[in-house]
Design a protein that fits this description.
Structural class: mainly alpha
Helix content: 55-70%
Number of strands: 2
Shape: globular
Oligomer: single chain
């Protein structure tokens, strides 16, 4: 069957939706609740709703940039900044999962091997381009939804509404601060800028609905963590992981292996997308793709291990505010600057 050239390098709005859904899912799966004020508590549900509003607000500058044909990826300077941003967050996501795996599933001696394998897998997937990554993201997202439904159904019998009393544990200030923490690590607006030209239509709907659906899943997981574990939920570093450990299906118990496998595949999909976007942002650097991706592999491997060894030793203090500030700069500030101070590019103009 002959494939139309118009379809090569393009994905559908549905595939883009699942890419954004999986992107947020990784953050939820590796979420370390020690950075929250008062940990997981009933009022965390309000914080997650506030985080959704913050993330949707951060999406509007990117949406307007693409709508008015003022995409920062057309600027050599801005695209280089976003390249660094994507590489950094690929390293952050690998380090986050390595931190989780070292604490819950493996010994710390295997971290280097995990980092190298994940960076290599992400670079290889990026080499296969967006079509392959999008297909895998769809599979990953569908399986994730099925797992979420299964976990909810298996825990309904253990769900107790009195676990939500008292509902307000923290102050209004702490609830708002937790919203900021929940909204950290949001790279979706930047991904939208990088992937806009690769989607055939309805890109904005994919972005907003993808983020909305991901927060809906996060809300449900928080709801059941609190409803099942009650006041014990704040005692666990990874309450969602603990919920999987407590879940049993007939003779099958401790479904934490499902959680780990699900998180691993979601991490792989997100890292591949970030690496691909980093490569696309560095198109003005005239180097062979293999050489460029090889360089990215070594940078991400070193960066991931450095973040794991140094940055996460102070996870409680460092994560509060830093990632949110970084997301605010690349999702809100830079797109607004480019939107306001750059004129629309004409078809016959060269890139700025």
């Amino acid at each position: 069957m002959k494939i139309s050239n118009a379809k090569i390098g393009k994905i559908s709005a549905c595939q883009l939706f699942f890419i954004f859904l999986v992107s947020r899912a990784v953050v939820a799966l590796t979420f370390y609740q020690g950075i929250l004020y008062n940990g997981i508590s009933p009022d965390s549900l309000l914080s997650s709703a506030g985080a959704l509003l913050i993330n949707l607000l951060f999406c509007f500058p990117a949406f307007l940039c693409c709508k008015y044909d003022k995409n920062p990826k057309n600027s050599g300077f801005f695209s280089l900044l976003y390249c660094i941003y994507f590489v950094f967050f690929a390293g952050v996501n690998i380090a986050r999962f390595a931190f989780f795996a070292a604490e819950k599933t493996t010994s710390s001696s295997n971290v280097i091997l995990f980092v190298i394998l994940m960076a290599a897998a992400g670079c290889y997937a990026a080499f296969l381009k967006i079509e392959a990554i999008s297909r895998f993201s769809v599979i990953c997202a569908v399986v994730s939804i099925l797992v979420l439904i299964a976990i909810i159904l298996l825990n309904i019998r253990n769900f107790e509404w009195y676990n939500f009393l008292p509902f307000f544990v923290g102050s209004r200030s702490e609830i708002m601060k937790n919203s900021v923490i929940f909204s950290s690590n949001s790279v979706e607006p930047a991904l939208y800028l990088a992937l806009y030209d690769k989607c055939e239509k309805k890109q904005a709907q994919s972005l907003f609905w993808g983020i909305g659906a991901s927060y809906g899943a996060i809300f449900l997981m928080l709801l059941f963590c609190i409803g099942v574990m009650g006041s014990a939920a704040p005692l666990f570093s990874y309450p969602v992981y603990t919920l999987f450990q407590m879940t049993a299906f007939g003779s099958f118990s401790r479904l934490d292996i499902v959680y780990t496998a699900f998180g691993f595949f979601a991490l792989f999909a997100k890292c591949a997308v970030l690496i691909l976007c980093a490569e696309e942002s560095a198109q003005k650097i005239k180097i062979n793709r293999k050489v460029k991706l090889t360089a990215v592999f070594f940078i991400i491997s070193a960066l991931s291990y450095f973040i794991y060894r140094r940055f996460f030793t102070g996870i409680i203090t460092s994560a509060r505010g830093f990632y949110f500030a970084l997301s605010a700069v690349f999702s809100l500030l830079l797109p607004l600057i480019y939107l306001i101070f750059t004129k629309r590019k004409k078809p016959d103009e060269k890139s700025l």
